[in-house]
Amino acid sequence: MLIRLDKFLADTGYGTRSNVKQFIKKNAVLVDNVKVTKPDVKVDTEKTVVSVNGKEVRFEEFEYYMMNKPAGVISASNDEREKTVVDLISEKKRRDLFPVGRLDRDTVGLLIITNDGKLSQKLLAPGKHVEKVYLVKVTGKLDEEDVKAFSEGLDIGDEKLTKPAGLSILEVYEAGKDAGTEKASSEEIYEDKCMSTEFITEAHVTLTEGRFHQVKRMFEARGHEVIFLKRLSMGSLKLDEKLSEGEYRRLTPEEITSLRGGI
Ligand code: URA
């Protein structure tokens, strides 16, 4: 791909298009070993060797990260007042990263962050039915009636019923005796909610659509409140268990290929 030098440097993390122009003037920027001062020099992202102050700069058109989203952070690219998931990625080069879909502020777990709009569209397109699996803790006891209701689709106040969803009950236990595998990220909120219920059920939910607050609204329709929600997978991509909340890593080439191929 042939692009201007200022775009090349802006896209590789050297500043905005306007301050990169100054940057080129003030620094030793070499294009195929020749010093340049003009921002409109054309470079081939695959072939041209660009270096800044003696260091070669490699162009990556797309970046792909998997994050274990922490609670308290919003799923957005930037926000004037709030910390976003993209703010947490300190090593990013690209300035156009965004989260693929949204998780609520208090939801944790798998979030893909990229600047690949095509992949994002495919993963989120309603017609593609990409499966998302969540671990959920809800107030009260879930039973086979709930499993049936999820599989038949629920009225959550929208025009249409939800698509058939999977509900697999893992464990029912007394509130306060947390037998579950996952700790809620905000213990205070969690304990608060536990006070108002006698039992807690832990379950897996599998959705093929992504409506606003969908998991919470589905349980609400069945008379249960979600007290903990974590996304475990999206299509072929599973949350890396080595990532603690707030941590992220780049997707491997195999994971990217599989996400593309599996849709
Ligand atoms: N469903 C919800 O209710 N919240 C999320 O963050 C994701 C799915």
Task: Give the number of helices.
Answer: 7
Oligomer: single chain
**First-last Cα distance:** 26 Å
**Structure class:** alpha+beta
DSSP strand (E) fraction?
25-35%
Description of the structure:
- It is a single chain.
- The mean pLDDT is about 90.
- With about 260 residues, the chain is α+β, with helices and mostly antiparallel strands.
- The two termini are about 25 Å apart.
- Strand 5 (about 50) and strand 6 form a beta hairpin.
- The protein has helices at about 5-10, 15-25, 115-125, 145-150, 185-195, 215-220, 255-260, and strands at about 1-5, 30, 35, 40-45, 50, 55, 65-70, 100, 110-115, 130-140, 165-175, 200-205, 225-235, 235-240, 250.
- It is elongated, with a radius of gyration of 23 Å.
- It binds uracil.
Summarize the structure.
The protein has seven helices and 15 strands. With 263 residues, it is of the alpha+beta class.
List keywords for this structure.
263 residues, alpha+beta, nine-stranded mixed β-sheet, four-stranded antiparallel β-sheet, binds uracil
How is the secondary structure organized here?
Elements: E1 2-4, H1 5-11, H2 17-26, E2 29-31, E3 34-35, E4 42-44, E5 50-52, E6 55-57, E7 64-69, E8 98-99, E9 108-114, H3 117-124, E10 132-139, H4 144-152, E11 166-174, H5 187-195, E12 199-207, H6 214-221, E13 226-234, E14 237-238, E15 248-250, H7 253-261
Parallel strand pairs: 9-13
Antiparallel strand pairs: 1-4, 2-3, 2-5, 5-6, 7-9, 7-15, 8-9, 10-12, 10-13, 11-12, 13-14
Bound molecules: uracil.
